[in-house]
Amino acid sequence: MSKLLYSVAMSADAFIAGPGGDMSWMSAHLAPNPPMDELPGKVGALLVGNRTYRGDDPNKGTDEEGAFSGAWQGPQFVLTHDVPDTAEPDVAFHDDLHRAVAAARAAAGGKYVSILGADVARQCLLAGLVDEVLTIVLPVLLGDGVRLFEQPGGASVRLEQVSVSHVPGATNIWYRVLR
Predict the structure, then answer these.
(1) Are strands 170-177 and 132-138 parallel, antiparallel or unpaired?
(2) pLDDT above 80: residue 70
(3) H-helix or E-strand containing 108?
């Protein structure tokens, strides 16, 4: 069965997007990262939050537009409260988390389902659906924005570190979610 992976680049103060979902900050900090260059080939489907799907792609209009800086193509499953009437190629919209996850797992064909978006990742983590978390820590402090994981009132998700790798300008930390 396909595993759910929350993979995300974040600032050193744990923001994955700036205020208002701004992703432009990331462009100045992304550099070659050989350990992560293999990840797109291991992903079979995306589970995406609606704000992320419709959001600010810092590479919009370039060859690097899209997931993993344009290195990935395939089925996307967007979790939204407002399912549109019109279809989009390779995109399925769902208003139910568990149905969206099941559809993404089926489409992934044994590869990872990569979760994109803080809110859908939070929902999956709290529902016990996430198997692994990959954080790519970039050398910048944003001070404000969208946090990696935020749960008002507190919630704790136990993680076991699987690996750490360093490249100039980034630290990659891979975790397994403990149940």
Answers:
(1) antiparallel
(2) no
(3) helix 97-108
